[in-house]
## 1
Amino acid sequence: AQSVTQLGSHVSVSEGALVLLRCNYSSSVPPYLFWYVQYPNQGLQLLLKYTTGATLVKGINGFEAEFKKSETSFHLTKPSAHMSDAAEYFCAVSDPQAGTALIFGKGTTLSVSS
Amino acid sequence: NAGVTQTPKFRVLKTGQSMTLLCAQDMNHEYMYWYRQDPGMGLRLIHYSVGEGTTAKGEVPDGYNVSRLKKQNFLLGLESAAPSQTSVYFCASSYLGANQPQHFGDGTRLSIL
């Protein structure tokens, strides 16, 4: 069965600092991978996704993630944090062969201080 | 440009009452999903549908029923609400295929006393 682990339920950075949110997955086949962001009292918005091809994926708002098969990881990064990046971030995985539904991690809350 | 619309946005119920949450999408998506979000638990799939007239169970289906009579609508029912069902409920939809991103509504905040 697939699973997703997000390391760190809460990450705090200063404005302008590097953002690194960690995601590891467990899957018997190379999965499709997604990062979503949730702002307070809103639904989830897609940041970026990896399906096939280039392993470094660029998303919206300056975020990017790299699929590393050998490490079963899909960490999310942004070179310089902005106050508006404060939100909850979810990593999710789907099985290309078997599933239609996403399996979500438990989320990481990002706080950005000035 | 509505996307996915959930009705109602907030509701308070008493234990044992019933209610239906409505999800509507205007993107002609085949797949629709209901999730619940609880603190520290992420999103957990309740039920989903891969097309009009079809439904399937997700990870946490007990205590819920669903119907997809029209392609654009996906209803989630609670027949006899319990305090454990206090949660934020999200509906999502997507095109065919596991590589397609899901589009989410803004959620329904449900409290059961």
Note: Chain B has no helices and eleven strands.
## 2
Amino acid sequence: DGGITQSPKYLFRKEGQNVTLSCEQNLNHDAMYWYRQDPGQGLRLIYYSQIVNDFQKGDIAEGYSVSREKKESFPLTVTSAQKNPTAFYLCASRSKAFGSGTRLTVV
Amino acid sequence: AQSVSQHNHHVILSEAASLELGCNYSYGGTVNLFWYVQYPGQHLQLLLKYFSGDPLVKGIKGFEAEFIKSKFSFNLRKPSVQWSDTAEYFCAVSPISGTYKYIFGTGTRLKVLA
């Protein structure tokens, strides 16, 4: 089945640690996106990539980094610089394709 | 099963026509409700959201939606569409407690003819 796979579903991180969220797609889509959702808010764009080896900052990119070495993969690293990383993270590719999300909690 | 249904997959309207896009959800608890828009080649943008209070919610760009709890519906409306509203529209729900998840509808592709 084609789709977007995010892993893990739940992730716990200690303060000061970097952590990487995985997003893989087998839809052959060029564009991929990372969003974040906090309680009481809608999705906000963190980073996006329109093509391999290229990516752009979204509205809330500070404290995050991404890479796009392969078309299928768009991992998101939440760095220790992200002051409030506890949130729900959603990966998507163009139109209609969404992952199931990763819930990150800082402990 | 938890799901979001958008019954209109493709809608074509002329400019100035009124728009209503249907959204029904199935979930056994209280949810937050959202409408997102995705313009060609762009990311999702939040149009409006409902958490509580007045069931008639006004969003950006003249859009509004009404939450009808008894019908599990959250239909999106706009009195007069413009060519620039051509985009794909997604309804989504997110439970307010328990497992954190986001459930999207399949989307409605709107084309507005100039």
Note: The mean pLDDT of chain A is 90.
